[in-house]
Specification:
Elements (H helix, E strand, L loop, with lengths): L2 H21 L26 H7 L3 H37 L5 H32 L2 H17 L21
Length: about 170
């Protein structure tokens, strides 16, 4: 195969890989299920649901602390989500650029992975802060409630990338 054909096949392969990465739903660092779902808790504003508050026996102080955590984290999450979107755009641009530069595409891919990892790390930290607010019994009950809700909806859990705190089977219906 001549050099031009090799470059063409390499370029096509990298474009395909970049497209697959860019098409992945947000979630874990590699686009899978969000971190935290592995800990078995919803990611929505579950503490605002009266039934959940009653079943967990949440105090007003706990509710205020959960609200404060969410507000504080939301500001950071907006920036991190923006960084992921920007990195996806840069990866697409690098993949489409002529002349094709595989190193630039690899670098852009590395930036995207780092941005996704930072976002998921922040989500995980938020989950840890949430866990610190709850007692051990409340934590177990919350996990049990989520499991029951998923089973009621006929789903063992939401598909990869779907926010378990929103939409069908989630807490915010």
């Amino acid at each position: 195969m001549n050099g031009r054909a090799t470059r063409w096949f390499l370029g096509a392969g990298l474009l395909l890989a970049a497209g697959v990465v860019a098409a992945q739903p947000m979630g874990g660092p590699m686009g899978g299920a969000p971190m935290g779902r592995g800990m078995g808790v919803p990611m929505g504003r579950w503490w605002e649901r009266p039934k959940v508050v009653e079943q967990l026996n949440l105090t007003a102080d706990q509710t205020q602390r959960l609200e404060a955590i969410t507000l504080d984290q939301a500001r950071t999450m907006v920036d991190l989500k923006g960084a992921v979107e920007k990195a996806e755009i840069e990866l697409r641009a690098a993949s489409d650029a002529e002349p094709f530069n595989a190193r630039r595409v690899r670098d852009a891919f590395g930036v995207l992975i780092q941005a996704r990892t930072k976002l998921e790390t922040q989500r995980f930290e938020m989950l840890l802060k949430t866990r610190e607010v709850l007692t051990a019994d409340q934590w177990r009950t919350l996990r049990d409630l989520l499991r029951e809700r998923r089973m009621e909806k006929g789903k063992g859990g939401p598909p990869a990338g779907e926010d378990p705190g929103r939409g069908p089977g989630g807490w915010d219906e």
